[in-house]
Amino acid sequence: MADEAYENPKLAALYDPLDPDRGDLDVYADVAAELKARHVLDVGCGTGTFALLLAGRGLEVTGVDPAAASLDIARAKPGSERVRWLHGDATALPAMRVDLTTMTANVAQAIADPQVWEDSLRGIHAALRPGGHLVFETRDPARRAWGGWNRAATHRTVAVEGVGDVETWLDVTGVDLPLVSFRRTVILTATGETLTSDSTLRFRERDEVTASLTAHGYVLDEIRDAPDRPGMEFVFLAHRP
Does this model's pTM top 0.90? Predict the structure, then answer.
């Protein structure tokens, strides 16, 4: 099941305007270039920003996401015909052989259920060609990123074309490690409409992630620092032997 933030058409339409700076994707684009990947599977592709970035560089890209509303936005973007869009998740992928699979931003942590996580790693492994790579990020639990997820720290107002001013903020609603739940509130100033979405992320320890990769037949190549949030998260790079 996708979060309301991505499945509600009104909220999905605001995702890109409220988060226009996607410099966090540079590390993944660099990995794709470094590995000379030609076919990339973008798990949790959302509104398609990264998939379209790679497709624009001539790569063959498959994007998969459980949120139909987000995929509708991705399919409406210029160049979307160059990407194969799939409604679903990594637990039930069609047959393919890709050079690289990515899970950008919060995707890996949003797979909070342990069994779905295991099934996702298994599905991705099957989709990779021998020698193909998986790269994803996850926040370091020790840095307690959720400490800043409150109205005082996250409140902002953004002018959105065709919508008007949009007021938004986050509030943590529960911490039961390794799970952290939070609510996003969005107010459309022009109409006074209030929209909310609840999300839960799983903060996995570094050793837990390493063990799960090994258990599913991956070879861990490297754990890198995230250039956009140095010291705050791990970027895992592994391959299928």
Answer: yes
